[in-house]
Design brief:
The protein has helices at 22-31, 48-59, 100-109, 128-136, 168-179, 194-205, 237-249, 265-273, 311-318, 339-344, 374-386, 397-400, 406-412, 423-433, and strands spanning 3-7, 13-17, 38-42, 63-68, 71-75, 111-115, 140-144, 148-152, 160-162, 184-188, 209-211, 217-221, 229-232, 253-257, 277-280, 284-288, 297-299, 324-328, 348-352, 355-359, 368-370, 390-394, 416-420. The chain is α+β, with helices and mostly antiparallel strands and 434 residues long. Strand 19 (348-352) and strand 20 form a beta hairpin. Helix 1 runs parallel beside helix 6 (194-205) and helix 7 (237-249) runs parallel beside helix 9 (311-318).
Length: 434
């Protein structure tokens, strides 16, 4: 079983290039099958989630061709849109974003049969808001034996849909189905994340009529058909934030390239509060920290608030800051499962309900640790790079869901990090890095 081997204590320095946004890519790749024409999508992150979704798309009859590692051409002409169509394989059940295929197929064919999603176990993420939206558009939905959802409609008609809670997934999924409905759909209390805007922009490039993405009211006027398009996915806000946190934790100096600084403002402001220096350029940020880090308070909120996907990484940095910090998680209830692993490295963190109370320590110490989800895994990598000594991280398949070439990018910054799969490999790693 693959692991990360890490030797900490290095001040990371240099440049790192951020890839395309995973969360935007998953919605955009699903949207690409809503036309018979070819769609060329650039800046696709080469991570296990996107690879898995593309395999599922190919399995139902679409053609998928990689032009290079980050450019893919999708043609949905070969998809058979009748009740024999079913999206269900061992891969698709492992990723959360499989549910975007429901909205895409329902919009195009008025029928979808898709396996219920998997992904990281970070708490309850029901799809009731998705179902409510599909039903409002005129579809009937049911969960059938084998853990699949079937949605069908004679036709989809525009509707007024109010989301009881802000949901990124439901916002995108309803937007997909509504794009090919009859009439006008209004989505109120919509999510405002950058990847919502990116998916809407891609759909508009395909001929959809969507306005208001990025605000809490999105208006979709349905069109008869969508056409092919060429599109480049925005940079990944969370990958960028992870490297920002990593630079601070290791007291480094890192230029993070191919970013949209505005998307990082919530992260930047907290790092500055902690004593780091963040310099913004047009499409990059430089993050530096060489002194004592200070405690602060963080509460996760929907965009433009502090992102839940950065909570674990920032809590890890606060674990070696002076003073007592509070980190409150308001989105998902299982996002503190990494705390017990940080404790093995010397962290002093107490969790009460949805708040972590962090008493900063002077340093982390290397240990053998196990990740439980994607962002927790990134946080443990940060801790290991900041720690004294050697660490190994198990279950790195979670991390590979959202970080492309993570170990190679860390090595480019001078860090010691390598994929191993045996004790012998670990001994070789120790001999090589000293």
């Amino acid at each position: 079983m693959e692991q990360y081997a890490i030797k900490g204590g290095i001040h990371l320095e240099g440049e790192v290039v951020i890839g395309g946004a995973k969360n935007a890519a998953l919605g955009i790749l699903a949207a690409a099958i809503m036309t018979e024409d070819e769609c060329t999508i650039e800046n696709v992150p080469y991570v296990s989630d996107t690879i898995t979704l593309l395999k599922a798309i190919e399995n139902i009859g679409a053609s998928v061709k990689y032009i290079d590692r980050h450019t893919v051409v999708i043609c949905g002409k070969g998809i058979r849109g009748d009740e024999g169509l079913s999206v269900d394989d061992e891969f698709i059940r492992k990723i959360r974003a499989s549910y975007y295929l429901i909205g895409a197929l329902l919009g195009r064919f008025k029928y979808a049969d898709v396996a219920l999603p998997g992904g990281c176990d970070i708490g309850a993420r029901p799809i009731d808001l998705h179902i409510k939206g599909f039903n409002k558009l005129g579809a009937t939905t049911e969960i059938v034996a084998g853990g699949k959802i079937v949605a069908k409609a004679e036709k989809l008609s525009g509707a007024h849909i109010y989301l009881d809670t802000v949901s990124v997934g439901a916002t995108i999924n309803i937007m997909l189905a509504a794009a090919l409905s009859e009439g006008k759909t209004t989505i109120e209390n919509a999510a405002k994340e950058p990847h919502i805007v990116d998916v809407a922009n891609f759909l508009n490039t395909m001929g959809a009529n969507i306005k208001g993405a990025g605000t809490d009211v999105i208006r979709v006027r349905g069109v008869e058909r969508l056409h092919g398009a060429e599109y480049s996915i925005i940079p990944d806000q969370i990958e960028a934030g992870t490297f920002m946190a990593m630079a601070v934790a290791t007291r480094g100096n890192v230029l993070i390239k191919n970013v949209i600084p505005k998307h990082l403002e919530a992260i930047s402001s907290k790092l500055i509060e902690m004593g780091a220096n963040v310099i913004e350029y047009d499409d990059s940020v430089r993050v530096m920290a060489d002194g004592e880090l200070k405690a602060t308070q963080i509460k996760t909120l929907p965009y433009p608030g502090f992102p839940t996907d950065m909570q674990a990484q920032m809590a890890t940095v606060l674990g070696i800051a002076t003073g007592t910090s509070l980190v409150t998680e308001s989105i998902f209830e299982n996002r503190f499962r990494y705390v017990s692993e940080l404790a093995r490295m010397g962290a002093k963190i107490r969790v009460e309900n949805n708040t972590a109370i962090i008493s900063g320590v002077s340093k982390y110490t290397g240990a053998r640790i196990t990740t439980s989800d994607l962002r927790a895994g990134a946080a443990l990598v940060i801790a290991a790079l900041a720690a004294e000594g050697y660490s190994t991280i198990d279950e790195i398949q979670y991390i590979k869901r959202g970080y492309e070439d993570f170990d190679a990018k860390v090595r480019m910054l001078g860090g010691h990090m390598q994929i191993i799969d045996s004790d012998r490999d670990m001994q070789k790693f120790k001999l090589r890095v000293g």
